[in-house]
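Got a spare moment? Tell me how you read both lines of this record:
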Amino acid sequence: MTDRASNAGNNAMSKPAWHHMNASPATRQATSRQRRRALWTCVGIVSGTLLLLPLAAVMGPRVPAFLPSYQTATVVAYVIITYLIFAHYRATRALDLLFVGGACFYCAGIFLLQFLALPDMFLPHGSLLGGEQTTIWLWFLWHAGLALGILAYAASNWRNPALMYRHSQRLAHWLMAAVAAALLASMALVTVFHAYLPRLDDNGDFRRLASSGAGPLLQCMTGLAFLVLWQATRFRAVLHVWLGVALVALLCDNAITMAGGSQFSVGWYVGRCNALASATLLLLIYLREMNQVYLKTVQDARLLALNNAMLEVRMDQVRLDDLTGLPSRSLFLELAETLRSRDLASRQAVALLFIDLDGFKRVNDDLGHDRGDTVLVEVAAALRSVLRDSDIAGRVGGDEFVVCLVAPAAAVKATATAVAGRIVSRVAAIGDGIGCSIGIALCQAENLEWDAALRQADAAMYQAKRQGKSRFTVYGHALLDEIA
């Protein structure tokens, strides 16, 4: 990694610039299309909020199932976002991600506490947690916690956008402990010290939220987080863009909730929808980006497999004899070994035929090298016409060829000699005095050593030449008896 800067005070070190890392929305550069999509999302949220703002105080229908459904969906969204962000932090050790992950973890905990504090939700008359002011103050705390978390994230990007921590797992544990402590303190605030909290909710009427200054304070915190985020990041990465959208949704949530002033008003319903949008937008964009990364990985894997296959084909083509198209010595031995390995379980025997042309030097000397090349091509064609689909032929020298075939041990000699006889006949039919001498080596597949088999077949081939040429000879009577 390049451009590292050490910091002994906090065991931190710089990571590559964000634009060199594109594996997640936290580091992937936002495209102009993504920015336009985010802008239109903001326009939709703001426009919908402004259109409904005059109706915010109008009481809507009382839907008992709305609140638990909203709470459950929001808790689940924040829990999943927390998991995804911390997973990415473990991979990148990017310190700024801890602030967003910690904020989402805090919000999930606050929403869970708020769920337990909802009146008449789990108990017929009352709540499991806190008192009358608990839910409104938990609402205040989750808005403040998320705004402060994004503000810390933006400030971290502004101060050192490339900071990452060496002991990432330890720091994550410390942060989780700090957030857990903050949740315990928040729970104590709205339960143990409930009586000392300023009264913001009067039997479902929370118009004091605006007059007390708590609501405007939230708006200032959220607006400040948005401005610092823009100043620090210029919305370069996908996460920057959609954190900005989430903050816009929170601003609209706060505004129309204060305008609604009471539970089950139009403003209250719209505020809950904006809050849910703030959470689900982050979740959906993370899931979408992960899907894009997955698809890109699959495409890369397919392309890599295709390139590897093409490379293997090209390598095989390079290792084919240019004149005859038959495998060269190294490729022949690889293919023959594959053939042998495939038939190990069935205890097949292997026959190796070493073929040397008779009269080839005279053809080259008297008729020229062009005719000699033509003879080699015709010999290769003769081999292909004689061999079975499972047999392998190769050219290992100027006028030397080899053939490998497998057959049951009891039939391998008969099969090899029959093939050798046909090769002798086909090569003799080429004319110009061309013939061939063939040496045959036989061996059990599991005992085969290619160098030894080639030497045996070569020795048998010279024996055939000494016996008058244009014939075949099988190596070693003792070996034949063992095979049989």
